[in-house]
């Protein structure tokens, strides 16, 4: 499964080898917030794992939290650190 996700190696991977998993549930009426969230995730290096579930091997956990707060998206999102896919 891990090999099916191609990540750019230009970003710094997490030293602990863990992945960030982000799960979101943005109401349909907030389509702009949903689109903004997807854009933020893509820019940070996240890849779509399945609908509303994104993963990232890069060291961007704190940056993700800050951006979610900055755009008031944290109420729609759960963040996890996982050891393997």
What does this entry show, briefly?
The protein is of the alpha+beta class and 85 residues long. It contains 2 helices and 4 strands, in the order βαββαβ.
Descriptive labels:
metal-binding, endonuclease, 85 residues, alpha+beta, disordered N terminus, 24% strand, magnesium, hydrolase, globular, Alpha-Beta Plaits, 2 helices, nuclease, four-stranded antiparallel beta sheet
Task: Describe the fold and architecture.
With 85 residues, this protein is an alpha+beta fold. It has a single domain, classed as Alpha-Beta Plaits (2-Layer Sandwich), CATH 3.30.70.240. Helices cover 28% and strands 24% of the residues. The protein is built from two helices and four strands. It has helices spanning 31-44, 61-70, and strands at residues 19-24, 47-50, 53-56, 77-82. The chain has a four-stranded antiparallel beta sheet, covered by helices on one side. Strand 2 and strand 3 (53-56) form a beta hairpin. The model is unreliable at 1-7 (pLDDT under 50).
CATH fold title: Alpha-Beta Plaits
CATH class: Alpha Beta
Proportion of β residues?
15-25%
State the end-to-end CA separation: 7 Å
Mean pLDDT over the full residue set: 88
The biggest beta sheet is recorded as: 4 strands, antiparallel
Question: Could you tell me the radius of gyration in angstroms?
Answer: 12 Å
Residue share in helices?
Answer: 25-40%
Question: What topology, given as strand order, has the largest sheet?
Answer: 2-3-1-4
Number of helices: 2
Strand tally is 4
Sequence stretches where pLDDT stays below 50 over 5 or more residues: 1-7
Structural class: alpha+beta
SSE order: EHEEHE
Query: How does CATH name the architecture?
Result: 2-Layer Sandwich
* Count of domain modules: 1
Based on CA inertia axes, which overall geometry fits? globular
GO molecular function, one term: RNA endonuclease activity
InterPro entries: CRISPR_associated_Cas2, PaaX-like_central
Pfam families: PaaX_M (PF20803)
Keywords: Antiviral defense, Endonuclease, Hydrolase, Magnesium, Metal-binding, Nuclease
